[in-house]
């Protein structure tokens, strides 16, 4: 999908240099990928501690039950 964006040339050049990207497209794609992974990690961190832990849960028994 072709998209025209007004991006700061200095930021793009710095991203290309730091990431070793040959093209602006590669730098922007890597930046977007990192942005998405960062926010997914943040969601996981925020979810930490919100789930109840059942010390009696036996995942091995559950796995055997699914196979049978």
- State the separation between the terminal residues, measured CA to CA: 47 Å
Please give the domain count.
1
- Please give the radius of gyration in angstroms: 21 Å
Largest sheet: none
Q: Which of globular, elongated, flat, extended, rod-shaped describes the shape?
A: elongated
SS class: mainly alpha
Topology:
Layout: H1 9-19, H2 24-47, H3 59-67
Give the gist of this structure.
The mean pLDDT is 91.
Detailed description of the structure:
It is a single chain. The protein is mainly α and 68 residues long. It has one domain. It has helices at 9-19, 24-47, 59-67. It starts with 8 loop residues before the first helix and ends with a helix.
Structure keywords:
about 70 residues; mainly alpha; about 0% strand; 3 helices; elongated
């Amino acid at each position: 999908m072709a998209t025209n964006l007004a991006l700061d040339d200095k930021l793009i050049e710095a991203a290309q240099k730091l990431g070793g990207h040959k093209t602006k497209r590669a730098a922007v794609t890597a930046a977007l990928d990192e942005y998405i992974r960062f926010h997914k990690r943040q969601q996981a961190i925020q979810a930490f501690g919100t789930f109840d832990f059942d010390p009696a849960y036996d995942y091995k028994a559950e796995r055997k039950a699914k196979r049978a």
